[in-house]
Task: structure prediction
Amino acid sequence: MKKVLLLAVFAIAVAMLFSSCRGKTHEITEEPETFGLELISEGKEYKLISVSQFNGEVIIPEIINGITVTAIGGEAFANCTGVKKITIPKSVTFIEEGVFANCPNLLYISVPFIGQSRTEPKKFSFFFSPLKNELITFFSVIVSDAPLISNAAFKDNPYLISISFGNSLTEIEESAFENCSKLGSVSFGKGLEKINGSAFKDCKNLRNIEISDSLKSIGTEAFWGCSFNNIYLPDTLTDIGIGAFNSCSYLTKITIPSNVTEIKDSTFFYCMNLHEVNFPDTLISIGNNAFAFSTKLTNITIPSSVIEIGENVFEECVKLVQITNLSQVDLSPSDSSQEIRTSTEVPFTGFLSVDENGLETYSIGGRNYIINYHGNQIKLDLTNTNCNAIYKFALLFSTVEEITIAENIIYLDAYALYSMNLKTVYIDMPFESANDWDKDWNTGCDAEIIWKS
Result:
């Protein structure tokens, strides 16, 4: 029968101020009666079973009274409403469910792994169930010693702000951080080798990411829709999945490592601020739509090593004025504005400008297209603009929720109203006007369309 030893802990009151955590620092020591500890493994290890109410930070050391802390009991910190920061040591090998249940002010957690143990990874919510939790305003996490972050471990977590990993981490499974809408910073240790598909998909605020020289593989759509403007890809990298950086609209430049021989379909699709791409001399293949709708590209060099080029690689790259194609493979015909085909130089037939309203426009063939919106307005009225057409995906990532289209707009391209945020479209002209527009002008548009005339 297990012998329960309630050891009290002298709470060392060290007055410290933290940027994210204000209050006292409490560390378990040899003195009695603040923490509940249970002797396990025939008295050779401690299991933390309960914690009294504290304000501020709680640090659990690896060893107390010469005995190693190896386990944290279920709901050990439950209802500790004043705790803002908790550090659990690497010596812990087992954590029971609901360890942080109903800790509404918890801002920072350092844990050795996510789940029951290093060999039984689970979703992050395992730490907070089964008690009903109040909303947390949150939240930074350090994972010090986990070899794996499991499938969908943090998926749809609306509170996570930053996370960093120790050198033990080797793999992040599918959708591990998908749609973590507030996640802004990620730092990997020196051992990470594989980031699986959709791992950080739709993390729209992810602006800072640190990747070390160990990464070998990035999965399909792994960083779809992220907001970093630069990302380091190490020479150890050998595989980049389909659409891995699709819709990374803030990405400005990329250097493909020498061990990556294939750029797959849609890898950099709709990277609208991408203006610099560096290919290695070892590149063999460029997939379909690999850089389509990357509207800031101005020139690009395809190395002689390339033996396969897909369809519409540079479709709608409206600023692309020069392609230096050193390979023996012709570029496919594209329906983009410049009609990019096979030559080493592409004439630039139109011109671009950004007006005082933040509308980036492209003029060609008698039409002054809106191709992008750089403003921050929620309501956009095109009645008195000099534009007369709206280009594909022009509003895709814009802030615009309501738009008014008047008779000065004579043409809407396919997917012209496809947008992540658009809710209402007012069209101040006869319904028959749409007969002159592309047949797919409203394809992908989830907004309510209201005809005023």
